[in-house]
Design a protein that fits this description.
4 helices, two-stranded parallel ribbon, 20% helix, 5 strands, globular, single chain
């Protein structure tokens, strides 16, 4: 989560996010808006990042059959430090960006 938090200040010129994620039915929820999330490779632990989880800034996702942390668009809006100055951010996804989720993740980067 620290990398996502510091990412804007690292002054990369190009950042590419590639989303190939799957969810299990027990974590699908409109409340969590799971399609507007950045996945990590960090193993999900319910006792970790308690404040961020309680604010629904982090949630549990499934990536390659592993439960991992996922940062919601709200995390991007409130927790990322700095701005993406002169950075091209590219998103490649099958399901993350749709009219039904109002492109929330993309808007959080603007």
């Amino acid at each position: 989560m620290d990398l996502y938090r510091r990412l804007p200040g690292l002054n990369y010129k190009v950042i590419i996010f590639i989303f190939r994620v799957h969810f299990t039915t027990d974590i699908r929820s409109e409340e969590f808006d799971y399609k507007s999330s950045l996945f990590t490779e960090e193993k999900y632990e319910s006792s970790k990042y308690l404040v961020l989880q309680s604010k629904k800034l982090l949630l549990q996702g499934v990536f390659e059959e592993k439960r991992v942390f996922a940062a919601t668009y709200k995390f991007v809006s409130t927790e990322m430090e700095g701005e993406f100055n002169d950075t091209l951010v590219i998103f490649d996804s099958c399901h993350t960006f749709t009219l039904s989720n109002k492109y929330k993740l993309i808007q959080a980067f603007l």
